[in-house]
Write a structure and sequence with these properties.
0% strand; disordered N terminus; mainly alpha
Length: 85
């Protein structure tokens, strides 16, 4: 139910990134597989529990840095999924 209410507007329309003061608060790498592994990273999104806890509070610049770092974390966790670029 909470996921249904998050970001919902009274008229039922989807909010745009400009609706919020922090655009990155509406963009999350969460995959709804919320299990912290032995390596300290979420098995779904590969964020640390601290990154998950403060996601809605951190500045956009920090959130963008975390998002960029997730590609490296994915490559480190599964070298066969490295995307050439």
């Amino acid at each position: 139910m909470a996921s249904q209410l998050r970001g919902a507007r009274p008229n039922g329309s989807e909010p745009s990134a400009t609706t919020f003061s922090r655009a990155m608060a509406t963009v999350s790498p969460c995959t709804k597989v919320c299990v912290i592994g032995a390596d300290g990273l979420c098995d779904g999104c590969l964020r640390t529990s601290r990154e998950i806890a403060v996601w809605g509070l951190i500045p956009d610049e920090v959130a963008r840095r975390v998002m960029a770092d997730l590609s490296r974390r994915r490559a480190d966790s599964d070298p066969e999924q490295v995307v050439e670029g």
